[in-house]
Amino acid sequence: MTTTKQRPGWHPERLRERREAHGLSLEAAGECLREVAERAELRLAANFQTIWSHENGNVYPGPHYRRAYCLLYQATEPDLGFRLPLPSEQAGASDVLPVPTPTTNPVVTEEAAAAIAIGLNQVTDAGQRHGQADGEVLKSRVVSAWRGRMLTDGVKNPILVLVGGYAGSGKTEFARFLGDVTGWAFLDKDSLTRRLVERLLVSLGGDPHDRHTDLYMNEIRPLEYKCLMDTANDNIDCGISTILTAPFIAELNDEAWMSRLTNRCKAKGMDVAAIWVRCDTESMREYIEFRDAPRDAWKLANWDTYVQGIDTEHAPPGVHLTIDNRHGAAVSIADQTREALRKLLG
pTM for the complete prediction? Predict the structure, then answer.
């Protein structure tokens, strides 16, 4: 839970209105939220006192609570009064994601594919300046991968997808969603390298949680990315479609790096696509505080300095598709898409 402060668009009374419209008591709403959270792997206790505090505006719900409320009430954050809507959310909840009716008819696969396509279109940043055509191709491949899992493999070449973004932007959540939908292999830089990085930093006389000094940037970071890309190369050699998630800030801004990667993959008969997950600084800070990872301590202690060095308005030039996750909107849509598929397919 997040301490109370003035937040544009926050109308806590809407939560109570939604709960009452669903005929739920505080205790029943808590039980439903816990069930939703378990399915979506969200961390929350959801007791009636907490829900009461949210509904009365005493406490602003944290990121996992907001995601759970959206799933429970099948609504967006603006619908539930958490914040002002983004331009893509002006249409209203009924237009965001249709939930197909469960059926045994084969057409269910196409209904599910349509739900995924709508979700991807909803979170695409309409203001991205380049790569629009490549982005549309990538989204089509995600939907085709879904069809391929249900029917046959509809894509000739395997693909390597890079999902980048700043700390706390939601890149890992979105990459996991792509993995859920496509069945492509998922590799996260931190999961692959964190323990080795921490031990190496200590052995070099540094702080195991350092992610900002010259020691880390010059000696450790290049090795992290080499480990990630070496692992990806193993999959490339085997023709396995793979999703990589890491900040990729320097890499996506380096045309020569992207060109080398693309050429290497092309020689193996593999395509390459890059996704940038865009987010606002307030939401990034909220998520970083929420996950409470020691490696983020410097960023939080020097937040103003940190944000001066990042660009939240524009994606790097090597990106094919920009995902708009300002205020967690894309992650919320991903949650609802998963829920729609769960209801459809059982």
Answer: 0.81
